Amino acid sequence: MSEAIWASWYDLEPGEQPAFLDWAHAHWLPWLQQRPGIGWVAHYRGVGHGPALATYHDIAGHAPDGETGTGTQFVVLAGAAGSHTFYRPLLERVAMPDGFAAMLARRRGLRQAVLVEEARVNGPALLARPPGATPAPAIQFGTYRIRTVEEEQDINCWYAHQRFPLMARMPGSVMTRKFVTSTGWAKHGILYEFESLAARTRHFEEPEESKVVDTAEWTGRIVRTTLHTPGSPFVGERTWPPVEQPA
Description:
Layout: E1 4-11, H1 17-33, E2 38-46, H2 51-59, E3 61-62, E4 74-80, H3 100-104, E5 108-122, E6 138-146, H4 149-169, E7 173-183, E8 188-194, H5 197-205, H6 218-223, E9 226-228, E10 234-240
Parallel strand pairs: 3-9
Antiparallel strand pairs: 1-4, 1-5, 2-4, 2-10, 5-7, 6-8, 6-9, 6-10, 7-8
């Protein structure tokens, strides 16, 4: 199982999406997966947020304008055993096949980070993510900073005492992993994996993320201590490798 992730968020102009995505799925992502030390690569398309997460966005703080890339439509994730895999050399500075640089230059609002895992918990739907496989068909990926050291201690206690035990028993939860960044604007990352978007909405967003409106709830209090990257938390469905449909 990978212990580090390289993440690359970006946007595309609407007219460029079909050609770029066809090329990325056929050429760039398979090439990336063959890089030494890379265990898996996954590509996700953002699907927007339900009412509860929209409220979350209204309450949480965000990165000041101009401090980090603003991409929110897509994210590419690559997993490796350790963060140094992504620095020998820096992943996007390696020699690439002809035409790759021109295609990658089409991305807008590019934001990248390398994140190192510090904790994880498996959920009841773990079979949706066999060992060594790409992350699950649906994800929620938050990346953020905390305003003060005391509030940082509080949110980590919240993960340890409340959120991780909840995810260990939540139907549809595949795996939850907490990260700290090696490089990137955010200091913290939290990656929730679900067997489907429907399971995420039913069991996670509607009953749990809705608690952000209530400051009497621990969840409601800690959300107000965060400064998120643009679009965070990102909710997405996997487009590559394709999600296998049940027989």
